[in-house]
Design brief:
The protein is of the alpha+beta class. 34% of the residues lie in helices and 18% in strands. The protein contains five helices and six strands, in the order αβββαβαββαα. The chain has helices spanning 5-50, 100-104, 121-125, 169-185, 201-205; strands at residues 60-64, 69-74, 77-83, 112-120, 134-141, 147-151. Strands 1-2-3-4-5-6 form a six-stranded antiparallel β-sheet. A hairpin with a 4-residue loop joins strand 1 (60-64) and strand 2 (69-74). The protein is globular, with a radius of gyration of 21 Å. The chain starts with a helix and ends in a 23-residue tail after the last helix.
């Protein structure tokens, strides 16, 4: 059977896009493993620096949660780092589309993503499954290991500067320190009175199940994204 022009185009697209996305995935996965190593080193270093200065009940602990997830507990905060297994393009109105580096080669816009979430550590300790966490940062990595960051207090490579630097240990340390610093300053606020003025009998009859009472750092308040 003769290959039609449409089929030829389909086959060419499969080869081109699958090759591109596999390269992006490999680079993002390598960056995520490097992030894990950097997290482990930072946790050990900070633990040594805090030795004798903290109550022994205050924990600073790194934990590998599998191939695509890791966590760092810092006192009452828990930072969870999660790599998405898919590769993403960006919408037409995203700032990255106005970047000269992307303008040079459309393929440069395809990125893998590592997300940073902030939870209260007690939410996991006491199985409060309804508690809320917050996305406080995202690291994007492309086919050439170039990166940019979105997130709270993230001041390293932003979308406008995408293409100027490769992801490395120095970049990761800056990103991680910014995330940890924001989480520590992002204190829980007492929810508005109106949020908790009614409770059900069921909630009290099952009060040992902590998930019945939702907790979050900004429960009942807006979580602004003005600096992302």
């Amino acid at each position: 059977m003769e290959t039609t022009p449409l089929r030829a185009k389909i086959l060419e697209t499969i080869v081109r896009k699958s090759t591109l996305k596999q390269k992006v995935f490999d680079n993002t996965f390598a960056a995520f493993n490097f992030l894990k190593e950097t997290l482990f080193e930072m946790a050990s270093e900070m633990d040594d620096e805090l030795d004798g200065r903290l109550d022994r009940r205050v924990r600073l602990e790194y934990r590998d949660r599998g191939k695509f997830e890791a966590q760092l507990q810092v006192a009452s905060d828990l930072l969870i780092f999660q790599m998405h297994t898919d590769v993403f393009d960006f919408p037409a109105d995203h700032p990255i589309r106005r970047n000269p580096y992307v303008g040079e080669a459309r393929e440069n816009a395809y990125c893998g993503v590592i997300s940073i979430y902030n939870f209260l550590s007690d939410s996991f300790k006491f199985n409060r499954n309804a508690d809320e966490g917050y996305l406080i940062g995202r690291i994007f990595v492309n086919r050439e290991r170039r990166y940019f960051v979105e997130g709270k207090e993230q001041r390293s490579v932003r979308a406008a500067s995408f293409g100027t630097a490769e992801i490395d240990r120095e970049a990761l340390v800056a990103i991680l320190e910014a995330a940890i610093g924001f989480a520590l300053d992002f204190d829980p606020l007492m929810p508005p009175y109106a949020e908790n003025k009614r409770v059900t009998v069921d909630q009290f009859n099952t009060k040992m199940d902590n998930s019945k009472f939702v907790t979050g750092k900004r429960l009942g308040y807006d979580f602004d994204v003005e600096d992302i």
